[in-house]
Amino acid sequence: METTTGGMGDCHPLLVEVYYDTRSGEDQEQWVKLYNACLGDIDLGGYSLGWSGASDTSGTMDLSGTILADGCFIVGGPMSTSENDNPMLDLAMDFNPDIDKANDPGNRVALFLGPAVAIMPATVPVDAVIYGNNNDEMLVDAEGGIPAPHVGDAGDQKSIRRTAVAGPTWIIESNPEPNVCPPF
Fold this sequence. Notes:
The chain is mainly beta. It is about 0% helix and about 30% strand. The chain has no helices and 12 strands. It has strands at about 15-20, 30-35, 40-45, 45-50, 60, 65, 70-75, 90, 105-115, 125-130, 160-165, 170-175. It has a 6-stranded mixed sheet, with no helix packed on it. Strands 5-4-9-10 form a 4-stranded antiparallel sheet, with no helix packed on it. The chain is globular. The termini are far apart.
C-alpha cells in the first residue's frame, strides 16, 4: 500500500471531532476539528483531508494554517450558525461534496500528509475515523488495516468525538463542542 505518513515516529495532527449531520441541510455547515498533541506548532500546509464512501477521492481538500502545540484547529463551514454549534472556524472551506452521513456502508474521514491530488484509494492516512454500521467498502485506517467502524453514525446535530490520543477511541457526542479543545 502507498503511504503518505512521513514515518511512524513523526508527530502529526489528530482528528478529534467530526460534525457532518445538521438538522436540515449539511451544505456549508459541516466541520472537522484537528488537535495538535505535539510539543511544537504544526504547519498544515503539507496536509490534506479526504472523506466519504468507497474511497477518499470522493471529497478532498488541501489544508493551510498552523495548529499551535496542544491546540485545536477547525476546518469547515464556511457558515457558522446555531445549526452547527457556532464553530470558530480557523479555515473556512465547504466540504464539497458533503461528508457522507449514510451509515451503510460505512464512511471515513481521514487526514493525509501530502496534497489532496496525491490521495488514492490505497493511500494510508496519518489518522482516520471510520463510522457507520460496517466497513464493507474496506476503508483503511492509519495502520493500513481494514477495521470495523470506530463508531456508529452520529445522527442529526450530534458529532463523533475522539476520547483519547491513543486508540482511537470514538463516541457519539450529543453535545458537540467545536470551540472546546481537549486535553484528553
